Amino acid sequence: MFDVRSIESGDQQDSDMSSFCRKRSFQRQACLLSVMAAFSLRLALGAFVPIIGITGDRDVIRPTADVAHVEHLVVRSSRSDDIQRRRLQKTVPNIYVPVSFVDNLDINSVEMPLDGNSVKPVEAATADNTSVESVHTDDSPDMGLDGIVEDGIYWGQVIEEHLPKGFDDADTRAWREYISKSFVVSLKPGCGRMQNRLVVFNDGRRACARYRQNTDQIQGELFSFYLGQLLNISNLAPSTASVIDTDSPLWTSASQDILSAQWKVQRPVVLTKWISDLEPAGIPTPFQPLDKHMNKFDVHNITLGIEDTRPQRGLMDILGAPKNTPKSPPIPPPNRLDATKLGRLVELAQWSDLIVFDYLIANLDRVVNNLYNYQWNADIMAAPAHNLAKQSDSQLLVFLDNESGLLHGYRLLKKYEAYHGLLLDNLCIFRRTTIQQLQQLKDDGPATRLQRIFEHTASDKVRDILPPLPEKSAKILIDRIDRVLGQVQKCHEMFSVQS
Question: Which residues are listed as membrane-spanning (predicted)?
């Protein structure tokens, strides 16, 4: 017989279990709805608070119309809006983060004056945990970087006035004139590769002679120098081409050394003026890690003595979710731009030209060389840059050995373009004169301008041996000019002073 009490007890247990499951299901749904509601409220506040100017205990953001005192943001490590959005999405999986949420932070149009009345920065945080400062200052255009940064993307007059003189057209003309009247007395090993030679002239002056079996590299060195001249980049030592001819006055006295060097006659060489007191030049920290940028916020942080000194991160760290980093104590703004900071900014201004120049010619043998080898040696970015030196007395950066430019480098774009593009994409501050000359070069036609300078400066013998810049190279150069000007326009939209 069935026990009625057992049946009733079992029915009661089933009923209790069913009730318990319903309660647990309801609790889960309520919890999920609470989480979604909290996150939606956070999104709404993130977009709404910066607009209406609600202030809190930690972050103070007021409308920019307040002309008396304005709270501004300095980004310690700038990142593009789309990167911020993607990283926020990684932090909260399966949630779509609208562009407007990041855009409403409006960090790119922020202005921050720099003067003696500034108070201590207050630490804050952005949507991707990037450390920022909120600084209370008097209102002033373009972050108060007058004379240091102009229009948000150009180096200002203070920096331009302190740039080393370098080498101008007058120096190049004087060098060509000197070569035409002098003669070589000896060739000595040196100046880089095995068949290069240190040339000594009759009055003791010296030059580096670049000799190659492949005339493409001689063309690359010569036409890259011409391009630097057209852009008024004064970091390239005066150079000129010559043809090895033991019957000519220039080479007659060095016939035996030419034979010892295994140089062939009737071959072109490039003679570059010897620059003394050169020392290795390192890669500045804004261009070392893969996720760094160089823009007006970075410049402002340098003037404040605030620089991101976090250790370099590997590629997997960059692609992974962001991690909270310890915040350094706020540093009060200085009352003046001291010599050390000024020297650093002057060096970075020269690097602006270097990045643009190397991108245009697709130079493989300088910073790209370090970037390419970074995948095997993470410490290589801390090593001196290849084919770059600094003059110890003037602090002039000298762009050496550009033979891969415009021809050889263009043939290898498929392999190295990612590294060229990485450097250019990190740059958002330029020398105004360089960009103006680049725009003029585009309007006139780079191939025409380069051919004109080649015909006007090279001897008949050189022009008989060296052909002009190939048409294919001229087309690639036009594309790369457009790419640089496009980067300038993008930076203008992101960082220029808003009216």
Answer: 30-53
CB 101 within 8 A of CB 46: yes
Partners of residue 155 on adjacent β-strands: 149
Q: Are strands 154-155 and 149-150 parallel, antiparallel or unpaired?
A: antiparallel
Q: Which tokens sit at 49? A: 């608070």
Cβ-contact 142, 109 below 8 angstroms: no
User: For the chain, give me the number of helices (H) and strands (E)?
Assistant: 17, 13
pLDDT in tens, 290-305: 667 899 999 999 988 8
Pairing of strands 206-211, 239-243: unpaired
Cα(161)–Cα(130) distance, rounded to whole angstroms? 34
Spatial distance between the Cα atoms of 230 and 10, rounded to a whole number of angstroms: 94
The rounded distance, in Å, linking the Cα atoms of 105 and 84 is 11
Domains and CATH numbers, the chain: 149-164+279-307+333-497 (no CATH), 169-275 (3.30.200)
Q: Give the three-class secondary structure for 375.
A: coil
Q: How far apart are the first and last CA of the chain?
A: 93
CB proximity list for 465: less than 8 A, separation 6 or greater:
215, 243, 266, 267, 268
Indicate left, alpha or beta for 251 from its phi (over 0: left) and psi (-120 to 50: alpha): alpha
Q: What is the pLDDT of residue 474?
A: 96
